[in-house]
Amino acid sequence: MSLQTVPSDATDLRSNRPEDVQALEADTRLRDDIRLLGRILGDTVRDQEGADVFDLVERIRQTSIRFHRDEDRIARRELEQILDGMSTSETVRIVRAFSYFSHLANIAEDQNNIRQMRARSAANGSGVLAETLAHARSAGISSDALRNFFKTAQVSPVLTAHPTEVRRKSTMDREMEVASLLDRRERVALTADEADASDEQLRREVLTLWQTNLLRRTKLTVLDEVANGLSFYDYTFLREVPRLVNVLEDRLEEGGEQAASELASFLRMGSWIGGDRDGNPFVTADVMRGTLRLQSSRVMQFYLNELHVLGSELSIAAHLADVSEELRTLAERSPDTSPHRSGEPYRLAVSGIYARLTATAEALEVEITRRPVGKGRPYESVKELQADLDVLHRSLISNNARVIARGRLRLLRRAVDCFGFHLARLDIRQNSAVHERTIAELMDAANPGMSYLALGEDARISLLTNELRSTRSLVSPFVKYSDETMGELNVFHAAAEAHAKFGSDAIPQCIISMCKGMSDMLEVAVLLKEVGLVHPSGRSAINIVPLFETIEDLQASSSIMDRMLSLHDYRRLVDSRGSVQEVMLGYSDSNKDGGFVTSGWELYKAEIGLVDVFERHGVRLRLFHGRGGSVGRGGGPSYDAIIAQPGGAVNGQIRITEQGEIISSKYSNAEVGRNNLEILAAATLEASLLHPRQSAPRREYLTTMDELSSLAFKAYRGLVYETEGFVDYFWASTVINEIATLNIGSRPASRKKTRAIEDLRAIPWVFSWAQCRLMLPGWYGFGSAVEQWIAEHPDKGMPFLKELYKEWPFFRMLLSNMDMVLAKSSIAIASRYAELVPDEALREKIFGRIRREWHSCIETLLDIMSQDRLLQGNPLLERSVRHRFPYLDPLNHVQVELLKEHRAQNPDEQVLRGIQLTINGISAGLRNTG
Question: How many other C-beta atoms can be found within 10 angstroms of the C-beta atom of residue 428?
Answer without folding.
Answer: 25
